[in-house]
Amino acid sequence: xxxxxxxxxxxxxxxxxxxxxxxxxxxxxxxxxxxxxxxxxxxxxxxxxxxxxxxxxxxxxxxxxxxxxxxxxxxxxxxxxxxxxxxxxxxxxxxxxxxxxxxxxxxxxxxxxxxxxxxxxxxxxxxxxxxxxxxxxxxxxxxxxxxxxxxxxxxxxxxxxxxxxxxxxxxxxxxxxxxxxxxxxxxxxxxxxxxxxxxxxxxxxxxxxxxxxxxxxxxxxxx
Length: 223
Ligand code: AP5
Prior knowledge:
By secondary structure, this protein is of the alpha/beta class. It is built from nine helices and eight strands. A five-stranded parallel sheet has the order 2-3-1-4-8, with helices on both faces. A three-stranded antiparallel sheet has the order 6-5-7. Helix 2 (31-41) crosses helix 3 and helix 6 (114-122) packs across helix 7. The chain is globular, with a radius of gyration of 17 Å.
Protein backbone atom coordinates (compact mmCIF):
# COMPACT_ATOMS: atom_id res chain seq x y z
CA UNK A 1 0.00 0.00 0.00
CA UNK A 2 1.30 3.42 -0.95
CA UNK A 3 -0.73 6.42 0.21
CA UNK A 4 0.31 9.68 -1.44
CA UNK A 5 -0.78 12.96 0.16
CA UNK A 6 -0.87 15.79 -2.36
CA UNK A 7 -1.98 19.35 -1.78
CA UNK A 8 -0.75 22.90 -1.46
CA UNK A 9 1.56 24.01 1.36
CA UNK A 10 -0.36 24.20 4.62
CA UNK A 11 -3.33 22.16 3.38
CA UNK A 12 -2.87 19.68 6.23
CA UNK A 13 -0.80 16.90 4.61
CA UNK A 14 1.45 16.56 7.65
CA UNK A 15 -1.43 16.73 10.13
CA UNK A 16 -3.50 14.14 8.26
CA UNK A 17 -0.41 12.02 7.52
CA UNK A 18 0.28 11.70 11.25
CA UNK A 19 -3.32 10.59 11.88
CA UNK A 20 -3.22 8.06 9.02
CA UNK A 21 0.11 6.71 10.36
CA UNK A 22 -1.36 6.30 13.85
CA UNK A 23 -4.50 4.59 12.55
CA UNK A 24 -2.93 2.09 10.14
CA UNK A 25 0.64 1.81 11.45
CA UNK A 26 2.40 2.74 8.19
CA UNK A 27 5.42 5.04 8.45
CA UNK A 28 4.84 8.60 7.24
CA UNK A 29 7.64 9.84 5.00
CA UNK A 30 7.71 13.60 4.65
CA UNK A 31 10.17 14.90 2.06
CA UNK A 32 10.12 18.28 3.81
CA UNK A 33 10.98 16.75 7.20
CA UNK A 34 13.81 14.69 5.66
CA UNK A 35 15.21 17.79 3.97
CA UNK A 36 14.93 19.95 7.11
CA UNK A 37 16.70 17.23 9.08
CA UNK A 38 19.53 17.21 6.51
CA UNK A 39 19.77 21.01 6.65
CA UNK A 40 19.91 20.97 10.44
CA UNK A 41 22.66 18.33 10.43
CA UNK A 42 24.59 20.22 7.75
CA UNK A 43 24.92 17.15 5.50
CA UNK A 44 25.93 17.59 1.82
CA UNK A 45 22.28 17.02 0.86
CA UNK A 46 21.16 19.64 3.38
CA UNK A 47 23.67 22.17 2.05
CA UNK A 48 22.35 21.62 -1.49
CA UNK A 49 18.71 21.99 -0.39
CA UNK A 50 18.82 24.89 2.06
CA UNK A 51 18.86 27.88 -0.28
CA UNK A 52 15.97 26.54 -2.41
CA UNK A 53 13.88 25.82 0.67
CA UNK A 54 14.47 29.29 2.12
CA UNK A 55 13.29 30.83 -1.16
CA UNK A 56 10.18 28.60 -1.22
CA UNK A 57 11.34 26.82 -4.36
CA UNK A 58 11.68 23.13 -5.07
CA UNK A 59 14.85 21.17 -4.46
CA UNK A 60 16.10 19.36 -7.56
CA UNK A 61 14.23 16.22 -8.59
CA UNK A 62 17.34 14.03 -8.52
CA UNK A 63 18.24 14.97 -4.96
CA UNK A 64 14.72 14.38 -3.66
CA UNK A 65 14.07 11.16 -5.58
CA UNK A 66 17.31 9.58 -4.32
CA UNK A 67 16.47 10.57 -0.76
CA UNK A 68 12.95 9.07 -0.96
CA UNK A 69 14.10 5.93 -2.73
CA UNK A 70 16.65 5.29 0.02
CA UNK A 71 13.98 5.82 2.70
CA UNK A 72 11.33 3.54 1.23
CA UNK A 73 13.87 0.74 0.81
CA UNK A 74 14.01 0.39 4.60
CA UNK A 75 12.28 -2.60 6.25
CA UNK A 76 9.59 -0.56 8.04
CA UNK A 77 8.08 0.28 4.62
CA UNK A 78 7.61 -3.38 3.64
CA UNK A 79 3.83 -3.39 4.25
CA UNK A 80 3.20 0.15 3.12
CA UNK A 81 3.98 3.80 3.65
CA UNK A 82 2.55 7.27 3.44
CA UNK A 83 4.24 9.91 1.28
CA UNK A 84 3.74 13.51 2.43
CA UNK A 85 5.01 16.19 0.04
CA UNK A 86 6.40 13.79 -2.55
CA UNK A 87 6.02 13.67 -5.52
CA UNK A 88 5.91 17.38 -6.30
CA UNK A 89 6.57 17.43 -10.05
CA UNK A 90 5.56 15.22 -12.95
CA UNK A 91 9.19 14.10 -13.25
CA UNK A 92 9.16 12.95 -9.60
CA UNK A 93 5.84 11.15 -10.12
CA UNK A 94 7.21 9.34 -13.16
CA UNK A 95 10.30 8.26 -11.21
CA UNK A 96 8.10 7.09 -8.31
CA UNK A 97 5.96 5.07 -10.70
CA UNK A 98 9.07 3.09 -11.62
CA UNK A 99 9.77 2.22 -7.98
CA UNK A 100 7.70 -0.68 -6.61
CA UNK A 101 5.14 -0.20 -9.36
CA UNK A 102 3.21 -3.28 -8.21
CA UNK A 103 2.07 -1.57 -5.00
CA UNK A 104 -1.57 -0.61 -4.56
CA UNK A 105 -1.53 3.20 -4.71
CA UNK A 106 -4.03 5.79 -3.49
CA UNK A 107 -3.49 9.50 -4.06
CA UNK A 108 -5.41 11.92 -1.83
CA UNK A 109 -5.25 15.58 -2.83
CA UNK A 110 -6.17 17.77 0.15
CA UNK A 111 -7.45 21.07 -1.22
CA UNK A 112 -7.69 24.35 0.69
CA UNK A 113 -8.07 27.89 -0.72
CA UNK A 114 -4.91 30.02 -0.83
CA UNK A 115 -6.28 32.64 1.56
CA UNK A 116 -6.99 30.04 4.26
CA UNK A 117 -3.50 28.64 3.76
CA UNK A 118 -1.83 32.00 4.32
CA UNK A 119 -3.82 32.32 7.54
CA UNK A 120 -2.99 28.79 8.74
CA UNK A 121 0.72 29.03 8.06
CA UNK A 122 1.02 32.35 9.87
CA UNK A 123 -0.20 30.47 12.96
CA UNK A 124 1.72 27.21 12.59
CA UNK A 125 4.29 26.12 15.15
CA UNK A 126 6.33 22.89 15.09
CA UNK A 127 7.71 21.04 18.11
CA UNK A 128 11.51 21.16 17.96
CA UNK A 129 11.57 17.85 19.88
CA UNK A 130 9.13 15.46 18.20
CA UNK A 131 7.99 17.42 15.11
CA UNK A 132 4.31 17.57 16.19
CA UNK A 133 2.32 20.23 14.34
CA UNK A 134 0.35 22.93 16.19
CA UNK A 135 -1.73 25.92 15.26
CA UNK A 136 -1.84 28.92 17.55
CA UNK A 137 -5.43 29.83 16.69
CA UNK A 138 -6.71 26.28 17.31
CA UNK A 139 -4.75 26.18 20.56
CA UNK A 140 -5.77 29.65 21.72
CA UNK A 141 -6.16 29.92 25.44
CA UNK A 142 -3.89 26.97 26.13
CA UNK A 143 -0.22 26.83 27.03
CA UNK A 144 1.27 26.93 23.52
CA UNK A 145 4.92 27.63 24.31
CA UNK A 146 5.59 23.90 24.76
CA UNK A 147 4.57 20.72 22.97
CA UNK A 148 1.68 18.94 24.64
CA UNK A 149 3.22 15.59 23.72
CA UNK A 150 6.91 15.82 24.69
CA UNK A 151 7.30 19.26 26.29
CA UNK A 152 9.63 20.40 23.45
CA UNK A 153 9.96 24.05 22.43
CA UNK A 154 7.56 25.23 19.69
CA UNK A 155 9.20 27.04 16.79
CA UNK A 156 8.11 28.70 13.53
CA UNK A 157 9.45 27.22 10.31
CA UNK A 158 11.73 29.62 8.41
CA UNK A 159 9.67 29.14 5.24
CA UNK A 160 6.43 30.18 6.98
CA UNK A 161 7.44 33.80 6.48
CA UNK A 162 4.49 35.34 4.52
CA UNK A 163 6.64 36.29 1.48
CA UNK A 164 8.03 32.77 1.25
CA UNK A 165 4.54 31.27 1.67
CA UNK A 166 3.37 33.30 -1.33
CA UNK A 167 6.27 31.95 -3.40
CA UNK A 168 5.55 28.38 -2.22
CA UNK A 169 1.95 28.79 -3.40
CA UNK A 170 3.08 30.04 -6.82
CA UNK A 171 5.45 27.09 -7.14
CA UNK A 172 2.67 24.71 -6.10
CA UNK A 173 0.24 26.04 -8.72
CA UNK A 174 2.86 25.90 -11.46
CA UNK A 175 4.62 22.62 -10.71
CA UNK A 176 2.58 20.40 -8.40
CA UNK A 177 -1.06 21.05 -9.29
CA UNK A 178 -0.69 19.31 -12.68
CA UNK A 179 -0.20 16.05 -10.76
CA UNK A 180 -3.98 15.95 -10.22
CA UNK A 181 -4.40 15.25 -13.91
CA UNK A 182 -1.46 12.83 -13.98
CA UNK A 183 -2.97 10.69 -11.20
CA UNK A 184 -6.54 11.05 -12.48
CA UNK A 185 -5.41 9.44 -15.71
CA UNK A 186 -4.00 6.56 -13.66
CA UNK A 187 -7.37 6.16 -11.90
CA UNK A 188 -5.92 6.49 -8.38
CA UNK A 189 -6.75 10.13 -7.64
CA UNK A 190 -9.25 11.41 -5.06
CA UNK A 191 -9.79 15.02 -4.09
CA UNK A 192 -10.41 15.71 -0.39
CA UNK A 193 -12.01 18.96 0.81
CA UNK A 194 -9.44 20.24 3.32
CA UNK A 195 -11.57 22.92 4.96
CA UNK A 196 -13.32 22.18 8.28
CA UNK A 197 -11.84 20.82 11.47
CA UNK A 198 -8.92 18.39 11.50
CA UNK A 199 -11.34 15.66 12.65
CA UNK A 200 -13.77 16.40 9.81
CA UNK A 201 -11.02 16.23 7.20
CA UNK A 202 -9.71 13.01 8.74
CA UNK A 203 -13.21 11.50 8.47
CA UNK A 204 -13.13 12.21 4.70
CA UNK A 205 -9.63 10.77 4.41
CA UNK A 206 -10.57 7.52 6.16
CA UNK A 207 -13.73 7.19 4.11
CA UNK A 208 -11.78 7.41 0.84
CA UNK A 209 -9.03 5.10 2.01
CA UNK A 210 -11.35 2.39 3.28
CA UNK A 211 -13.56 2.60 0.20
CA UNK A 212 -10.59 2.17 -2.13
CA UNK A 213 -8.65 -0.31 0.00
CA UNK A 214 -11.12 -2.38 2.07
CA UNK A 215 -8.21 -4.50 3.29
CA UNK A 216 -6.98 -1.59 5.41
CA UNK A 217 -7.65 -2.09 9.09
CA UNK A 218 -6.79 0.07 12.08
CA UNK A 219 -3.92 -1.11 14.27
CA UNK A 220 -4.66 -1.88 17.90
CA UNK A 221 -3.98 1.13 20.12
CA UNK A 222 -1.09 0.47 22.51
CA UNK A 223 -2.24 0.34 26.14
P1 AP5 B 1 7.14 20.63 2.97
O1 AP5 B 1 7.67 20.49 4.32
O2 AP5 B 1 6.64 19.44 2.25
O3 AP5 B 1 6.06 21.78 3.01
P2 AP5 B 1 4.68 21.96 2.22
O4 AP5 B 1 4.28 20.97 1.22
O5 AP5 B 1 4.80 23.35 1.73
O6 AP5 B 1 3.62 21.65 3.28
P3 AP5 B 1 3.62 22.08 4.74
O7 AP5 B 1 4.46 21.14 5.55
O8 AP5 B 1 3.93 23.55 4.84
O9 AP5 B 1 2.08 21.97 5.10
P4 AP5 B 1 1.13 20.70 5.30
O10 AP5 B 1 0.27 20.52 4.11
O11 AP5 B 1 1.89 19.51 5.81
O12 AP5 B 1 0.21 21.30 6.45
P5 AP5 B 1 0.23 21.06 8.04
O13 AP5 B 1 -0.38 19.74 8.37
O14 AP5 B 1 1.55 21.38 8.64
O15 AP5 B 1 8.25 21.29 2.00
C1 AP5 B 1 9.06 22.37 2.43
C2 AP5 B 1 10.09 22.67 1.35
O16 AP5 B 1 10.95 21.53 1.15
C3 AP5 B 1 9.52 22.97 -0.05
O17 AP5 B 1 9.17 24.33 -0.20
C4 AP5 B 1 10.71 22.57 -0.95
O18 AP5 B 1 11.71 23.56 -0.93
C5 AP5 B 1 11.27 21.34 -0.23
N1 AP5 B 1 10.64 20.09 -0.71
C6 AP5 B 1 9.86 19.25 0.04
N2 AP5 B 1 9.46 18.21 -0.70
C7 AP5 B 1 9.99 18.39 -1.93
C8 AP5 B 1 9.90 17.66 -3.15
N3 AP5 B 1 9.18 16.52 -3.24
N4 AP5 B 1 10.57 18.14 -4.22
C9 AP5 B 1 11.31 19.27 -4.15
N5 AP5 B 1 11.40 20.03 -3.03
C10 AP5 B 1 10.76 19.59 -1.93
O19 AP5 B 1 -0.83 22.18 8.49
C11 AP5 B 1 -0.53 23.55 8.35
C12 AP5 B 1 -1.11 24.32 9.55
O20 AP5 B 1 -2.52 24.24 9.48
C13 AP5 B 1 -0.72 23.74 10.94
O21 AP5 B 1 -0.58 24.79 11.85
C14 AP5 B 1 -1.90 22.85 11.30
O22 AP5 B 1 -2.06 22.73 12.72
C15 AP5 B 1 -3.05 23.62 10.66
N6 AP5 B 1 -4.15 22.77 10.20
C16 AP5 B 1 -4.06 21.53 9.65
N7 AP5 B 1 -5.29 21.07 9.34
C17 AP5 B 1 -6.16 22.07 9.69
C18 AP5 B 1 -7.57 22.20 9.62
N8 AP5 B 1 -8.36 21.23 9.10
N9 AP5 B 1 -8.13 23.35 10.07
C19 AP5 B 1 -7.36 24.35 10.60
N10 AP5 B 1 -6.01 24.27 10.71
C20 AP5 B 1 -5.43 23.14 10.25
